[in-house]
Write the C-alpha cells for this entry.
Amino acid sequence: MSNDEEKQELVSSREDRKAAAWTWPVILVSVFFIGWLVNVIPTGALEPDEAEVSGAELGSAADLALLQIQSQAIIASASMDADSATHAIQTLREQTSGTRARAAVLLLEDFIDIPDSKPIARLRELKKSKGAPSWLEEVEISLNTGVTDQQRIVLRRELGWFAELAAGPDRTEPVKAREIRQQSTGVILLVMLCLFGAAGVILVGGVFLIKLARKRRLTATTMKLEPETFPRGVMLEVFALYLCMIALGELGSIFFHGGISMIGYVLSIGVPLGWPLFRGHKWKPFLHSLGWHRGDGVWKEIGCGILGYSGVLAIASIGIALTWILTMSVGMFSGGGAETAAKPAGPEPHPILGWMFSGDWIARILCLLLAAVLAPLLEEALFRGALHRYLRGQFGFFASALITSVIFAALHPQGWMAIPALGAIGIGFSLLREWRDSLIAPMVAHSINNGALIVAVWVAL
C-alpha cells in the first residue's frame, strides 16, 4: 500500500469512527421485537379440528420434551421410593400447563400407578375446557380399558413418547414398559454424570480465572482496540444490519408466510458481511478486526477455547444461580396453580428441544449442526466480533461485555428470566475474545457448550 493509500485509509477510519445515526434505534427496536414480540405473537396456524384452542393452550413440543426428561426421572425413582415419586408427580401436576402436557402427566400417573390420583376425574374436567381436542378420547380410553395399536398412533401424533405409557388392551402393561424403565434409569445416570462433570469443569474454570486475574491479563490483554485499525462505526452498522434482517424476516413470517423468516436469516449473514465492501472498505482488515484470524495458531487457539470453556462454565454457574433465585422469587409472589392454567414461573424451554422431541435422527443431526456449528460461527462473529469490538472503543472490558451479553441473552427465546444465565455465558465468551483476540477460542467454547447440551438431550430423549 502506498503512502497516499495509507493516508486515505487513515482519514476514512477517523471519519467513520462514529456509526450512522440509524444504528442504535435499529438495534433497540430489533432487540425488543425479536426478544419479546416474536415470543408473544403466535405464528403457527391452528389445528383444523381445534380452531378454538391456541398453540399456548395446547402446549409446545419443547414443553413436552422437557416434561419427558422430568417424567423419566420420576419413573426411575418410583422403583426405589414410591413416596418421593408420588410427591414429584404432585409437583409436576401443579407446574404443568397446556392440554398436551396435562394429558401427558395423566398417562404418566397411570403408568406409575399413583394411588388415589384419580386421573379419569381430572381428564373429564380437562375435556370440559373450551375447544377440548378430540384426541383426549384416546387418553380416556387408555385410562378406562386400554388402547389399541391404532389408537396409540393417534396419541403418538399428539404426545410423542408419552403415547408409549398408555395401557394396552384390557389394561395390560404397555409393550415398551420394560424399555421405558431401563431408559429412565439411564437418564438418571446421565443427569448425575453431567452434574459431576460440570462440577469438575467449574472447579478447573475457577482455578483458570484466578490465574488469569493474577497475570493481569484483563488489563494487559492481547486485544487492544485501536479505532484507526478499522472504522469501528462500521462494526456497529454491521451488527445493526444483522438484527434488522432477522427482525424483518420474523415480521414477514407473521404477516405473510412462515418461510420468509428463513430468507431473513440468510440475509442476516450476507448483508452484514457485504456492508464493509459497500462502504468502500477492504475485507482483510475488516475480518482481522472482527477476529477472523489465526491468532497464535489454529491449534493453540482451539486448545485455549477448550480450556477457556471451563472458565465460561464457572462464570455461567453464577448466572444460573441468579436465574434460579429470580425464578423462585417470581414463583413466590405470583399466584395461581393447577386450577388457573397459568404457566409456572421460569425460563422457557428452547424451541430446539421441540425439534429434537418431534423429529427423526436426521432432524436431530440438523439440530446439532445448527447449535454446535452455525450458531457459534455466526453469533460469535456478530456479538463478540462486531458489537464487542465497537464497544471496546468507547468502554472498558466489563461494560462492553455486559452490554453485549445482555443483548445476546435478550434475543434468545428462553424469556427474560433466563437473561442472567445466558448473559453470564456471554460474558465468558467476551472474556475469551478479550484474552485471545481471535474468535477461534470463543467459537470453540460456544460449540462445546451447545453441542454438549444437544447430545445430552438427544440421549435423554
Observations:
- Confidence is low (pLDDT under 50) at residues 6-14, 41-57, 217-227, 336-342.
- The first helix runs from residue 3 to 15.
